[in-house]
Write a structure and sequence with these properties.
By secondary structure, this protein is mostly beta strands. The protein has three helices and 15 strands. A hairpin with an 8-residue loop joins β9 and β10. α1 packs across α2. The N terminus is likely disordered. Bound molecules: calcium ion.
């Protein structure tokens, strides 16, 4: 149907003082005044609303013994995350991760088996993030979560960061000291038990094979809508996760 300019102009003038006018009026006005809405999501984001995910109120377990990610997972971007041999694996995700479709409570314990096939290490978890977004540029400085990066930066650092994995407030442990068992580099192909937990509503702790690596005490704890999801992430290395257990505390 061809719009008549005078009817559209009238509709626009009538609705100009009604910023919250009814949908029908707004439809006519925007047909002439607003350009077509071309707002593709930024690279790495997805459309599904994480706020609608069910709350995690009982322990959750996933052994990934199936052929596809399934309905419990939301991958950011396309193609980087898949099930391989009963594990959830990613490669070259470029900080566009995969999120569990559950809303975490304030306090929870997250445990998972994690393996990197690469000498570069780079096992990455995100906790209490928004459940939907990923990196929008090369540098992942706009995360929504606490980021645990084990063997990051080509297996030179274990990091626990808040919102920005490069942030000056991040906790970091430099790897390679031969007589410090906490500072061993990740071995390619070796499976580690990684644990992230928050018990007191403000302190996030990162454990690797039952050794506490970092504790991040946060005066403004990430929680609630936008900060209530768990995910895995990756830059380039081929990484796999298995036997995920999430326990509300
Ligand atoms: Ca498995």
């Amino acid at each position: 149907m061809i719009a008549r300019p005078w009817t559209l102009a009238l509709a626009a003038s009538l609705t100009a003082c009604l910023p919250n006018g009814p949908p029908s009026a707004r439809t006519d006005a925007t047909a002439t005044k607003a350009p077509p809405r071309r707002r593709p999501p930024p690279a790495g984001s997805v459309q599904a609303p994480a706020a609608d995910d069910p709350p995690l109120t009982t322990p959750f377990f996933d052994d990934f013994e199936r052929g596809s990610l399934g309905p419990d997972w939301r991958a950011v971007g396309w193609g980087a995350w898949k099930i391989e041999g009963g594990r959830l694996c990613g490669r070259s995700a470029r900080n566009r991760g995969v999120w569990l479709r559950r809303r975490l409570p304030l306090d929870a314990r997250i445990e998972v088996d994690a393996t990197s096939s690469s000498p570069d290490g780079d096992l990455k978890l995100e906790a209490w993030g928004d459940g939907a977004s990923g990196a929008t540029s090369t540098s992942y400085t706009n995360a929504t979560s606490y980021l645990a990066v084990l063997g990051g930066w080509k297996n030179t650092l274990h990091v626990l960061a808040r919102l920005d994995e490069h942030g000056s407030d991040r906790k970091e442990l430099r790897l390679g000291a031969p007589d410090d068992p906490r500072a061993r580099k990740l071995e390619p192909g070796q499976t580690y038990r990684v644990k992230l937990e928050r018990l007191d509503g403000r302190t996030v702790s990162l454990w690797l094979d039952d050794v506490r690596i970092h504790a991040y005490e946060d005066e403004s704890p990430l929680s609630g809508p936008g900060h209530d999801h768990l995910g895995f992430n990756d830059w380039e290395a081929h990484v796999c996760f298995d036997n995920l257990r999430v326990t509300p505390l």
